[in-house]
Design goal:
Strand content: 15-25%
Strand order of the largest sheet: 1-2-3-4-5-6-7
Shape: elongated
Structural class: alpha+beta
Number of helices: 4
Helix content: 25-40%
Distance between the termini: 13 Å
């Protein structure tokens, strides 16, 4: 059983490497520096007096709607189901002279992905906004968190502009999907390789 399993994994790894679009991770334009720790990625950008970081984790970032069966039917000419990773991402804006960090929790709405060509709609939304003490890794639930569901649209638009001015806009969000998808695929292949070594281990 294990031999067959290992053989299956070997073939699977070969196939996955064949369809791998990026041998190395794609860059995000606009001077973002990338740090990757396992499944977590962090993009950092410095502009006058500020540091902006965007953090996301690729675990559970592939929307559940991508069932294999529906994918197969739609694309007879293309064997690979195009799995896209659309992770939630957290933007932190840190101003050098304050002790506060503005934290914006963003996500890709599930129904938005793939409807290009509509009027300029944003491909990501801000879900929550809060202030957190700069430099503390444990965020406090006692800090006020603004949920955008019931937010005044003018304020919401200003927040989106605030992000866009710092390089977090639709172009960025598109490139983030690209990066996240490549990272997810790379980690998946690595997982298959680890699984193969584990299975073969006597």
């Amino acid at each position: 059983g294990d031999k067959a399993f290992a053989q299956f994994l070997t073939d699977e790894i070969k196939e996955e490497k064949k369809i791998q679009k990026h041998k190395s991770l794609p860059k995000v334009s606009g001077g973002w520096e990338l740090e990757v720790h396992g499944t977590e990625a962090k993009l950092v950008r410095k502009i006058a007096g500020e540091r902006i970081t965007v953090t996301f984790n690729i675990n559970n970032s592939i929307p559940p709607s991508a069932d294999d069966e529906t994918q197969e039917e739609q694309k007879p000419d293309d064997q690979e189901p195009d799995l896209t990773s659309t992770p939630n991402f957290v933007v932190e804006v840190i101003k050098d002279d304050t002790k506060q960090t503005l934290v914006l929790d963003c996500h890709y709405p599930e129904d938005e992905v793939g409807h290009e060509g509509e009027e300029e709609s944003d491909i990501f939304t801000i879900r929550e906004v809060s202030f957190q003490p700069t430099g503390e890794s444990d965020w406090k639930d006692t800090n006020y968190t603004l949920n955008t569901d019931s937010l005044d649209w003018a304020l919401y638009d200003h927040l989106m502009d605030f992000l866009a001015d710092r390089g977090v806009d639709n172009t960025f969000a598109d490139e983030l999907i690209e990066l996240s998808t490549a990272l997810e695929h790379q980690e998946y292949i690595k997982f298959l390789e680890d699984l193969k070594s584990f299975v073969k281990c006597q």
